[in-house]
Design brief:
about 35% helix, Nuclear Transport Factor 2, Chain: A, alpha+beta
């Protein structure tokens, strides 16, 4: 009888110990860390990142070749283009397809654009000095860009 009580006592103690340990640990598991690698470069102070510089150069190449499909790829679907270069009120174009058609139409008539130097900025913003007109000269000003997280242009101003 003594052995039975001892066996039952040890078994109960073992069950209580295991269950107690489980419930004490429950809810206190260490937080799992999720790591995500960001592959953006850090530009020197004041300059837009290398990715943004490349996007702006590629956008100019697409514009100068009147490639509407390639141009549309640089803009978010709900993008806005505000052209203030001829004074107020601005000409406003909405939507990546409409913006691409408008810019490609200019290029098909001999209009070209040339970026002047490197773009300035800090994401999500960039400012690019540029010259534009027939043959890429005639007017000069600034192109201001706002990008989304996917580095698509969501808003562009021409001054």
């Amino acid at each position: 009888m003594r052995r039975t009580i001892l066996s039952v006592g040890v078994t109960v103690a073992l069950i209580v110990g295991v269950a107690g340990g489980y419930f004490l640990r429950w809810g206190t598991e260490p937080t799992k860390t999720v790591t995500r690698t960001v592959t953006r470069t850090v530009a020197p102070m004041g300059l837009a990142s290398e990715e943004v510089q490349a996007i702006l150069e590629d956008r100019v190449a697409a514009l100068n070749s009147a490639d509407a499909k390639a141009l549309a790829a640089f803009y978010a679907p709900n993008a806005i283009l505000e052209e203030w270069d001829l004074g107020p009120p601005p000409n406003i174009t909405k939507g990546s397809e409409n913006i691409a058609k408008r810019l490609a139409q200019f290029a098909s008539k001999g209009f070209a654009i040339n970026n002047e130097g490197l773009a300035l900025g800090a994401e999500p913003w960039a400012v690019q000095a540029a010259r534009w007109g027939v043959g890429g000269s005639g007017m000069s000003g600034f192109l201001v860009y706002q990008f989304n997280r996917d580095l698509k242009i969501v808003h562009q101003w021409v001054f």
